[in-house]
């Protein structure tokens, strides 16, 4: 993967204009993930992947650090470009140095459950993010996260009385944080929808599909659950 310095890549992207509004925009200050900030996904993998797909749209690449369980199929279904991805499953005891190096070079970095680190190490990583403009997306809690997201309720569509086809998950997501994100927000989302991607839950969806978004026709393997 060819990678340019994040600060230069961000400047080129900003000069070309920002992508359209995301379904996650209602949860984020200014409707987007700001460069140089950290966001925690509350240990919800579909939410983490949706954030990564949103943040990496139009960028030079993304990385997953300390997420050995992340599969290529799940990443691709969420909208991530596999050809632009970098996996570092086990960063080892020197994970702060590894993460700092990745944040200098890759615009969007997902991190898994990493060992605790002293405050001075976290401050150094925050400084790297501010300097490079990289976005850090934490699978779980992250000290110093600017925005903290949490799925407060979730139900799968398609499962009846012990059997059915899982088509999508309807989730309520709560957003809190600091600064511009201090005011609590929430949104009802398909997370994921039938094609694996995030979509808003709206009152004008096709009633023939039980309220599912219009992309239900997308071909995607489904999971059959038997009681």
By DSSP, the count of extended strands is 10
**Largest sheet entry:** 10 strands, mixed
Mean pLDDT: 84
Indicate the overall shape. Answer: globular
Radius of gyration: 18 Å
Query: What is the element string, with H for helices and E for strands?
Result: HEHEHEHEHEEEEEE
Distance between the termini: 45 Å
- Helix % is 10-25%
Class computed from helices, strands and strand pairing: alpha/beta
Low-confidence stretches: 1-5, 8-20, 205-209, 215-227
Number of separate helices: 5
Strand content: 25-35%
Short description:
Helices cover about 25% and strands about 25% of the residues. It has about 230 residues and is of the alpha/beta class.
Word description of this protein:
- The protein is α/β, with parallel strands linked by helices and 227 residues long.
- The chain is 24% helix and 25% strand.
- It contains 5 helices and 10 strands.
- Strands 1, 2, 3, 4, 5, 6, 7, 8, 9 and 10 form a 10-stranded mixed sheet that branches.
- The longest helix has 14 residues, at 119-132.
- The protein is globular, with a radius of gyration of 18 Å.
- The N and C termini lie far apart (45 Å).
């Amino acid at each position: 993967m060819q990678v340019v310095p994040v600060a230069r890549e961000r400047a080129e992207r900003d000069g070309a204009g920002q992508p359209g509004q995301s379904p996650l925009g209602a949860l984020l200050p200014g409707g987007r993930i700001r460069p140089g900030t950290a966001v925690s996904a509350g240990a919800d993998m579909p939410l983490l992947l949706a954030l990564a797909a949103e943040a990496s749209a139009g960028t030079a690449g993304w990385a997953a650090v300390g997420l050995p369980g992340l599969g290529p199929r799940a990443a691709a279904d969420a909208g991530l470009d596999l050809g632009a991805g970098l996996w570092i499953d086990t960063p080892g005891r020197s994970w702060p140095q590894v993460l700092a190096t990745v944040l200098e070079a890759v615009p969007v970095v997902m991190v898994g459950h990493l060992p605790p680190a002293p405050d001075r190490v976290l401050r150094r990583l925050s400084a790297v993010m501010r300097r490079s403009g990289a976005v850090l997306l934490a699978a779980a809690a992250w000290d110093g996260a600017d925005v903290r997201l949490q799925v407060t309720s979730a139900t799968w569509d398609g499962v009846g009385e012990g059997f059915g086809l899982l088509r999508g998950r309807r989730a309520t997501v709560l957003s809190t944080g600091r600064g511009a994100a201090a005011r609590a927000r929430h949104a009802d989302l398909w997370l994921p929808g039938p094609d694996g991607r995030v979509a808003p839950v709206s009152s004008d969806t096709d009633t023939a599909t039980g309220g599912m978004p219009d992309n239900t026709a997308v071909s995607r393997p489904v999971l059959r659950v038997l009681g």
